[in-house]
Prior knowledge:
Layout: E1 2-3, E2 22-24, E3 27-30, E4 35-38, E5 41-42, H1 47-57, E6 64-65, H2 66-73, E7 79-80, H3 81-95, E8 105-108, E9 112-115, E10 120-121, H4 153-165, E11 168-172, H5 179-190, E12 198-202, H6 212-219, H7 229-237, E13 243-247, H8 253-266, E14 271-276, E15 286-289, H9 304-308, H10 311-322, H11 331-343, H12 348-361, H13 363-369, H14 391-400, H15 404-412, H16 422-429, H17 436-448, E16 453-454, E17 463-464, H18 467-476
Parallel strand pairs: 11-14, 11-15, 12-13, 13-14
Antiparallel strand pairs: 1-7, 2-3, 2-10, 3-4, 4-5, 6-9, 8-9, 16-17
Amino acid sequence: MRQAVESTPFVPDGERAFAGRLAFGRFVLSPGERLLSRDGVPVDIGGRSLDLLLALVSQPGRVLSKRELLRRVWPDVVVEDASLRFHLANLRKILGDGEAGARFIATQVGVGYAFVAPVRSLEDPAGSPPTPWPEGQVTERLPARLRRLIGRQKDARQLMDRIGECQLLTVVGAAGVGKTTLAIEAGHALAERFADGASFVDLAALEDAGLVSSAIASALGITVQAEDPLVVVLGHIREQQRLLILDNCEHLIDAVSAIVERIREAAPKVAILATSREALRVCGEHVHWLASLDYPNEVTGLSREQLLAYPAVELFVARSSAGGSVLADDLETTQVIADMCRRLDGMALPIELAAVRVAAHGLHATAKLLGERFSLAWTGRRTALPRQQTLQATLDWSYDLLSPHERRTFERLSVFLGPFSIEAALAVVVDDDLRIDEAAAALEDLTAKSLISPDRWGDAKAYRLLEMTRAYARAKL
């Protein structure tokens, strides 16, 4: 196919990037001198191949269309696509693209080509743009960790040990149990093990599954303008030793699962730590089920010191004190707190939301309000995501992701005040509109999505709804 191209002089986009020499891999490109060298030795490269390299390097990470490359490299002549393919093949041979895993130029089929190797300026003159892909930043783009991690030290150690054994680990647990906090803590602790550091991708704010690849590229510091940013991402991380944390995957789980499998195949040295309310269910995945914070099932017969030793009680006291509450240091007060933690099932987010109410309402009044519907609307940190500011929003997030059969099953299970068996659940849920096989599948899916919990105190075959989850489902019913 012959392409008519515009007669315009070649001027690289991002011209400021050409203020000095550019380095990528073992190569140094000197645009002003039109010279390419490898390990300090000049490389024999033709003029068209060099122009093609200049065009690609001028916008690292961006997919340039065939028409755009033809316009830049052959501005005054009409050429065939075969010429572009010939010079691209020659350029790849010169760079050693594909040798020993090295990647420089990625092809997006039907669209164009992108330069995917990290590019840095050797001069870094004043006013030049920052290096697109910083290297060696051990805690690159990780959120700040908590000064004090309560009750999750064992889980953090397990994550550190398991990441060494597997390359894909998903932390699964109910809404508000503390998955993100644990992942951030593990990220900071693990980052030094990875030569290229750790990157954190917060997927909570995304609604479009098509933006997952762009979110990953942004977390890696890659500027991408392409229909499929994952092509560029994979080219960039192919040989990297990096920890990639994908947080809040549940609402985009199909898209995330597909992308994770592509990353695992293309970049085997990249370890992935994901958090979700259900497992990704992809090849090679290991799952860490995150339970609620430990709390006393019975408060009578335990001393104040014994009650305070439970992580759920410790968290409540720490958060209420931080909120300005002055709690009495007697056994009765600690028993009330422990009972509240039991009613909140040891869930970190509900405990924190209840603890900050103590300053306004007092401990005993707050305890009474736990059973009321409006306690679901208690607000938390202003800086938290909207879905994490109230229990109502957190549970709305999970409910909106359910299928009609799952919603109906979830709502009807709210009639149980305590543990229930699968036989009892089916007896309540099944009717003319919901067959027994559909109800059984919905029950299994609700358990996988952490909305139904195995009864931790009773029979292993029994299930239960957490108290605040039951209150929400009852309101829906």
